[in-house]
Automatic annotation (TrEMBL):
Pfam families: AMP-binding, AMP-binding_C. GO terms for molecular function: ATP binding; medium-chain fatty acid-CoA ligase activity; o-succinylbenzoate-CoA ligase activity. The keyword NAD does not apply. Converts 2-succinylbenzoate (OSB) to 2-succinylbenzoyl-CoA (OSB-CoA). This is 2-succinylbenzoate--CoA ligase. Residues 395-468 form the AMP-binding enzyme C-terminal domain. The gene is menE. Pathway: Quinol/quinone metabolism; menaquinone biosynthesis; Quinol/quinone metabolism; 1,4-dihydroxy-2-naphthoate biosynthesis; 1,4-dihydroxy-2-naphthoate from chorismate: step 5/7. Its EC number is 6.2.1.26. Residues 7-345 form the AMP-dependent synthetase/ligase domain. The lineage of its organism: Bacteria, Bacillati, Bacillota, Bacilli, Bacillales. GO terms for biological process: fatty acid metabolic process; menaquinone biosynthetic process. Belongs to the ATP-dependent AMP-binding enzyme family. MenE subfamily. InterPro entries: AMP-bd_C, AMP-bd_C_sf, AMP-binding_CS, AMP-dep_synth/lig_dom, ANL_N_sf, MenE. Coiled coil: none annotated.
Length: 476
């Protein structure tokens, strides 16, 4: 297949590819020219092997990524929030030979035992005589991205061009594609939810409104005044946007707030419904190249709380005790499809555990109803077993969030000599909210064994770069 960016620059050269909040723009033709020029300069210091990229969202990062695709060099994305030691470990795990980075990380990368080059320095290099890729081998590795590592050492997930292509096409078949679409990217591009938007942009010919990070004021302004039609969010950022919206309404042209990153609290969905905010729930992960299950717009209100049905080229089952479950029976979510990774890089044991009989075992718990709609319950690793009873943290968090004045809630387990485990809650709340009030609220809505034994108040809860709650760090 012809290189996607080359083809897009040929088809719609003057269309906007990237737009920034300061008004700066880059057309597809300009993106193509800059990427090719940058590729010829990168080639002077790197010809083979993997390149790691360390950067916050920026046009420079977008250009550098597409440049690597012209060299057919797989990119290993590093999370900017990790330590230098963690970057070193991930570079070793992913066989990285060169690191390129945004200038602000110069001091941080100095101790890495690898050649490192800032984007700005590479721009000063003389162009080298090299042959840039004209066609994409869809089976080639495009990128490697590490899992969050919440259940152990982070694993590098392999993404081929075919994975990314399949994800973009399946998304369009579900959400549709409108001539005026503009997708706001505030998720980090070093996470799959952010990176997938870059592929959609080039494949669809759609502009991306790129923010360095989530900022509710900038996002609100982009939706209200900059013709943004779609945005990807997680529960906590969605909540902040709804608070910012207050009693207002989004323009009718804003057609989709794609909500992923875990089970969505029902109070949040009900709040969005009251404000006519077009929430579209989705389920996906790094291993599925972003979304693999998404709720269609037609079912958004009728199936409130569901992540939807598998995308057109994907399949889904719920397994428990090595069998497919009946409707409404909770089990592990297993999936397959062309957007699903072929495996973890150099992790044979993990691959054997995750891939069985052609199905990828996600480690997430959920169920499908009689119509085949998926409802995500929780991470299997977060499940609390108290006296033989299963407690899903997301269910308890949802009840806590339904109390007026509670902004964030996280539930995890502590050891208990009698019950094995019991739940405890960590809450960010407005002044005046007390633990006694929350316990009464929970007791009226939950079975006694699900009620948190203790409630701790915090100024903030631990979250990763995409603002997903990190329950394993709640007790830190």
């Amino acid at each position: 297949m012809e290189h996607w960016l080359t083809k897009r620059a040929y088809l719609t050269p003057d269309n906007i590819a990237i737009e920034l909040s300061n008004g700066e723009t880059l057309t597809f033709a300009q993106l193509y020219e800059r990427a090719c020029a940058f590729a010829s300069k990168v080639y002077t210091v790197h010809q083979n092997g993997h390149i790691a990229m360390l950067s916050n969202n920026s046009i420079d990062m977008v250009v550098a990524f597409w440049a690597c695709t012209y060299l057919n060099v797989p990119v290993v994305f590093l999370n900017t929030r990790l330590t230098t030691r963690e970057w070193q470990i991930q570079c070793e795990d992913a066989d990285v030979e060169t690191v390129i980075y945004a200038d602000q990380y110069k001091e941080s990368v100095e101790s890495l035992a690898l050649p490192t080059y800032p984007f700005a320095d590479i721009d000063t290099f003389k162009s080298s005589a090299c042959t840039l890729t004209t066609d994409m081998d869809l089976n080639s590795v495009c990128s490697l991205m590490f899992t969050s590592g919440t259940t152990g050492r982070a694993k590098p997930v392999i993404h081929t061009y075919h994975n990314h292509w399949s994800s973009a096409v399946a998304s369009a078949l579900n959400l549709g594609l409108m001539p005026n679409d503009k997708w706001l990217a505030c998720l980090p591009l070093f996470h799959i939810g952010g990176l997938s938007i870059l592929f959609k942009s080039v494949i669809y010919g759609m502009p991306v409104y790129l923010l360095e990070r989530f900022d509710e004021e900038k996002v609100h302004n982009a939706i209200m005044n900059q013709d943004v039609t779609i945005i990807s969010v997680v529960a906590v950022t969605c909540s902040r946007l709804l608070d910012r919206l207050a009693d207002g309404y989004y323009p009718s042209s804003f057609r989709c707030m794609l909500l992923g990153g875990g089970p969505a609290p029902k109070p949040l969905l009900e709040k969005a419904k009251e404000k006519n905010v077009p929430i579209v729930q989705t389920y996906g992960m790094t291993e599925t190249s972003s979304q693999i299950v998404t709720l269609s717009e037609a079912d958004a209100l009728r199936k409130l709380g569901s992540a939807g049905k598998p995308l057109f080229s994907a399949s889904l089952q719920i397994h428990a005790n090595n069998k497919t479950t009946k409707p409404n029976e909770v089990g592990e979510i297993v999936v397959k499809g062309p957007m699903v990774t072929s495996g973890y890089y150099h992790r044979e044991k993990a691959n054997k555990e995750a891939f069985r009989n052609g199905w990828f075992h996600t480690g997430d718990l959920g169920y499908v109803d009689e119509e085949g709609f998926l409802f995500v319950v929780d991470r299997r690793s977060d499940l609390i077993i108290s006296g033989g009873e299963n407690i899903y943290p997301a269910e308890v968090e949802e009840v806590l969030l339904s109390f007026k004045g509670v902004q964030e809630a996280g539930v995890t387990a502590i050891e208990d000599s009698k019950w094995g485990q019991v739940p405890v809650a960590y809450v960010v709340a407005n002044e005046g909210v007390t633990a006694e009030q929350l316990l009464v609220h929970c007791s009226a809505r939950l079975a006694s064994f699900k009620v948190p034994k203790t409630i701790y108040f915090r100024d903030q809860l631990p979250r990763n770069a995409t603002n997903k709650l990190q329950r394993h760090l709640l007790q830190s």
